[in-house]
Every structure is written in structure tokens, then in C-alpha cells.
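Dear H.,

Thanks for agreeing to be a second pair of eyes. The structure we're designing against is below in C-alpha cell form, covering all 346 positions.
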């Protein structure tokens, strides 16, 4: 009895279920037939047809069986597109909540602080922004710091290191000058990295370790020498010179083999001296060379502007104040007229 009742109930449920599926299938086929009968130059599914199939695939599991005009994947794409449009419209209409948006100005300022201060973290940058009057959280600063472009150029960090240590660094080197009657003369100089100032200069025909040691004593005389002294691996800078540098209180620092760029400050001064003076004169003897280089050092320290010193001179040249009435400019020859210095007429 119970088994018969169970079969009867199952037959009734299957009858109604199959009828429901039959109705939905007929509805789907009729809808597709109406779409085919639409008179259009190019038959395309309208928005109403797409909405029908999106709703049908939501409520009926067998919607794929009667589908003829399009593929099931197309219907799924319609559903996803409608879902995106719904939430896009909802996000526009709905009141925006959550944390405040970070303006473009603040983002650019955060990126600038990250680039200029590579050792700063989010708390430091957040503190600077608070002092500037910007109201945002430290968490927002941290998130935007992660998106900040990193500068891969390590040269800037090296320049920062040199700026912080250049007052403690000096360099020495030799360069040769051919003469008309005495062959080749050797020019020795010591230059400070801080203001690119020539601390000592001398000329000799026969350089040796004892002569170099004497020049180093004259370079600093009664002053405290620089902490580091940079020089190359020339044979004239032997073990005796290294020991003398240590006795003076400086730390000798040799450059690598065939690496003049490691003593770049000294090499640049040699190039300036040749371009500004030595390439334009004929050296007669040792006395002549000393006199010309002495005049050049005066011009170099007091008159010649330097790119590495923000267009200033090693000795510090004051900027003249010129009024509208005082418009006359005077020129003063230097090095026999090779160069000139200009000043406002008194």
C-alpha cells in the first residue's frame, strides 16, 4: 500500500514537472521565433530578448536545450554585462562612503617626497603632510608610497654621499707640460673637494718621493690636513709617500689601476688648466710656467665661475647690485687677455 502510494505521488510530481518544462520550452522557442520574424536590415537580439534569456537561465536549469539563435556562452556574457552595468549605476547613484579620496596634488607630493628622501618611511612623510595642512591618514600615505616610482639611478645617492663628505676629502696628482728648452716639466698640485680650491701647486723637473713629501708639508703647513687624501698608483707615490700621508693624520686612498675617473675632481682641474691656459701659450722654462700658473690660480679662485659650485668661484665671488642708472659694465683682462672679469662701474 505504501509503495503504491509512493509511486502515485512520484508520477503526479513528474507529470507537473514535465509540464512546467514543456511550457518553458515552448515559451523559449516562441520567443526565438518572434526574434526571427523581426524585419530588420541586420537581425540582432534586442535588449528585451537578452533580458528574457538572462531571466530564463536564472530560473530554469534546462534553458540550453531549446536555445538555437545564439550559443549558451553568449547568454552568460549578457548576464555578466548586465551585472556590471547594474553595479556601475548603483555606485554612481549611491552616496560615496569610506575614506576620503587622495587628490592628485597630494599624490604628486607623496611621490616627490619618496624620490627626494629615499630613507623616509610613511610616518615621516605623513608628519610632513600634516605640517603642510593636508588631512589624510598614515595608512593612505603608506598605500600611495608603494605605488611611487622608484629612481633606479644610484648616481644621485653617490652624489649625496660625496656632498656630505667632500669637506674631508682632498686629492693630489701630477700632469706634464712640454717646454721649449727644458723638455718636460712635472706639475704637482693638491686640490680640496669642498670648494675645488687648489691648496698647493709646484713644478719640478725630477719628481721623487722626498720632493712629494715636502710639497705635502707645504700644502697644509700649520693647518689640519684633510681626513682622506686621494691619489693614483703612480710610481712617484710610493710607500714613503703613503707613510708620510699617514704621519700627517690623513688616510691615503689609492684609486684602481687605469681608473682616472675615480680621481675626477683632480682630473677635471687638469682639463680646465689646459683648456684655459696651457693650450694657448708656449712654455719657455720652469720660471715661466710657475708665473703663468700662479696668475691662473688667482683667476681660477676669484674670477672663474664653476658649474659644480652653483656658478660661484672657489673663493666666493659676491654678486654685485646694479641699479638702473649704473648700466655701464667694465671688463678687466686676466692672463694677458685670455680671459676677462666683468664688474659694474663705480
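And this is the sequence the design step returned. I haven't edited it by hand at all.
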Amino acid at each position: 500500500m505504501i509503495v503504491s502510494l509512493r509511486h502515485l505521488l512520484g508520477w503526479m510530481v513528474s507529470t507537473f514537472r514535465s509540464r512546467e518544462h514543456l511550457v518553458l520550452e515552448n515559451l523559449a522557442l516562441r520567443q526565438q521565433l518572434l526574434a526571427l520574424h523581426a524585419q530588420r536590415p541586420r537581425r540582432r537580439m534586442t535588449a528585451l530578448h537578452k533580458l528574457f534569456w538572462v531571466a530564463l537561465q536564472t530560473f530554469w536549469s534546462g534553458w540550453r536545450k531549446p536555445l538555437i539563435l545564439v550559443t549558451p556562452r553568449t547568454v552568460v556574457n549578457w548576464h555578466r554585462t548586465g551585472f556590471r552595468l547594474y553595479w556601475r549605476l548603483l555606485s554612481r547613484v549611491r552616496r560615496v562612503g569610506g575614506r576620503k579620496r587622495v587628490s592628485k596634488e597630494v599624490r604628486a607630493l607623496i611621490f616627490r617626497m619618496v624620490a627626494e628622501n629615499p630613507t623616509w618611511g610613511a610616518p615621516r612623510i605623513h608628519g610632513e603632510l600634516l605640517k603642510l595642512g593636508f588631512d589624510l591618514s598614515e595608512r593612505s600615505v603608506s598605500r600611495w608610497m608603494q605605488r611611487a616610482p622608484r629612481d633606479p639611478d644610484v648616481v644621485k645617492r653617490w652624489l649625496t654621499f660625496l656632498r656630505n663628505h667632500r669637506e674631508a676629502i682632498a686629492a693630489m696628482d701630477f700632469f706634464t707640460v712640454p717646454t721649449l728648452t727644458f723638455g718636460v716639466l712635472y706639475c704637482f698640485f693638491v686640490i680640496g673637494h669642498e670648494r675645488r680650491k687648489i691648496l698647493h701647486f709646484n713644478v719640478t723637473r725630477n719628481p721623487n718621493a722626498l720632493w712629494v713629501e715636502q710639497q705635502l708639508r707645504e700644502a697644509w703647513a700649520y693647518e689640519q690636513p684633510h681626513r682622506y687624501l686621494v691619489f693614483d698608483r703612480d710610481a712617484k707615490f710610493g710607500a714613503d709617500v703613503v707613510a708620510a700621508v699617514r704621519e700627517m693624520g690623513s688616510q691615503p686612498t689609492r684609486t684602481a689601476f687605469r681608473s682616472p675617473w675615480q680621481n675626477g675632481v683632480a682630473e677635471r682641474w687638469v682639463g680646465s688648466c689646459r683648456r684655459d691656459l696651457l693650450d694657448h701659450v708656449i712654455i719657455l722654462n720652469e720660471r715661466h710656467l710657475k708665473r703663468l700658473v700662479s696668475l691662473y690660480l688667482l683667476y681660477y679662485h676669484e674670477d672663474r665661475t664653476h658649474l659644480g659650485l652653483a656658478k660661484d668661484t672657489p673663493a666666493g665671488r659676491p654678486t654685485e647690485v646694479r641699479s638702473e642708472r649704473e648700466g655701464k659694465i667694465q671688463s678687466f683682462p686676466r692672463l694677458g687677455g685670455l680671459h676677462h672679469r666683468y664688474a659694474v662701474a663705480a
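Two observations from my side: The two ends are 131 Å apart (CA to CA). DSSP finds eleven helices and seven strands in the chain.

Warmly,
E.
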